[in-house]
Amino acid sequence: MRLSGRQIDCVRGGREVFSGLDFAAASGQALAVVGPNGSGKTSLLRLIAGLLAPAGGSVVLEGGADELTLPEQAHYLGHRDALKPALSILENLIFWRDFLGGDAGDLRDSLARVGLSHATHLPAAYLSAGQRRRLSIGRLLAVRRPVWLLDEPTSALDAAGQDLFAALMRDHLSGGGIIIAATHAPLGIEAMELRMGGKA
Amino acid sequence: MTALAALIRRDIKIALRVGGGALVGVLFFLTVTVLMPFALGPDLALLTRLGPAILWLGALLASLLTLDRLFTADHEDGSLDLIVMGRTPLELACAAKALAHWLAAGLPLIIATPALGLMLNLDTTATSAVALTLLVGTPALTFIGMIGAALAVTLHRGGLLLAVLVLPLSIPVLIFGVAASQAAISGPLAFGTPFSILCAISLVSFVIGPFAAAASLRHGLD
Description:
The complex is a heterodimer. By secondary structure, chain A is an alpha/beta fold. Chain A is built from 5 helices and 8 strands; from the N terminus they run βββαββαααβαββ. Chain A has a 5-stranded parallel sheet with strand order 5-6-7-3-8, sandwiched between helices. In chain A, strands 2-1-4 form a 3-stranded antiparallel sheet, with helices on one face. Chain B is elongated, with a radius of gyration of 18 Å. The A-B interface holds A 12, 46, 49-52, 68, 71-72, 74, 76, 78-84, 86-87, 91, 94-96, 98-101 and B 2-3, 5-7, 9-10, 13-14, 17-20, 76-79, 81-88, 221-222.
C-alpha cells in the first residue's frame, strides 16, 4: 500500500498556503509533517482526509480496498476530540465503533490499552484534556483502518501517554499501516520528515 | 444500517440528557400556548377559532428553536469531520440526524397538543385534527429546517440566520397545516384536500432536505 500526493496546491480564504507539494509514504512508514505555525500542516492533513478540496494536484492511495475511497480508509485525529460530554466514555467509543464500522468486539480492551478502563461509565465531560486525547486514540484502536492522519497527536498527553502512543503507532506500522502526523514534538517513532513552509 | 441506528440512538440520548435541549421546545410551546388565553381574554368562541393557528405557530417556532444546534454541536467538537469522512453516505447521515431530532424534539410537541388544546377550548375532533396535521407537518419543518441548519453550521450566531432562511420555506407547511385543521373543525372545505397537500410537502422535504443539507455541509467545511 502506498499513499502519495503529487503537486498539491492548497488555497484557503484566497491565500495560498502551500503549492507544488509532493509526499509519499508506503506501508509501514510514518511521515512527520513539521514546520512553523501556519505553514499548512493541518490543511495538508485535512486535504488528505478529503475535508478540504485541493486547488491543484491529487492524493492517491494505491493498493487499498478498491471499493473504498481514501477518507473511508483513514482515521483523522484532529485538534478537536469528537467526544460528546453528555455520553460516558464507553458510550462515546461504542458510537464511533458502530458508526465507523468496526468489528463488534470488546471495547474494554481498547480502553485498557489507552489506560481508561477504570472509569468507563464516567461522562466524558469530566475528563481532562489528556484523558480526552487518550479516548480519541482508543477510537483508532476500536476500528481498524490502514491510514492514520494525526494532527498534533501527543499534545496534552503526559510522558507515560506519549510512550504508550508511540508503542501503539509502532504496532500500527508493523501491521502494515501508514501514519501521517503533523507535529512539533518528537513522535517517539522512526519517521521520515516532510518540512513545510519556507521552501515553497 | 448499524451506523445510522448508532447515529440516531446517540442523538436522541444526548437530546434527552441534561442540557440536551429536547424539552426546551416543549416548554416554549407550552409557554406560548398557555399565555395566549391571557392575552386574548376569556372569549371562548374566539379561542376556538384561533386555536389551531396558535398551536401551529407555537409548534413551528418551537421546532425552530432547537434546530440550530443540529449540526453546530457536531461541527464544534469535530464529530462532523468524522461523519463526513465515514462510509455512510452523508445524505443518509443527515436524514438520520433529522429523524433523531424530530423524535426527540418534534414528537413531544404532538404529545403535548391534546393538553394544550384544552386551554384553547378545542373539542376532541379539533384537537385530534390539529395533532394529526402536526404529526404529518412537523417532520417537514425539521427536514426543511435542516437545510438552514447546514448552511449556518460554520457561523457562531447562526440561529437568527437560520430563522430568516427557514421561515419563508416553512410558510406552505403552516398554510396547509392550519387549513387542514380548520377544515376539520368548521368546513366548508374537505379535510382531505389541504391534508393531502401537507403530506405531499412532507414527502418532498424528505427527499430534498437531506440532499441539500449534505451538499451545503460538503461545501461549508473548511
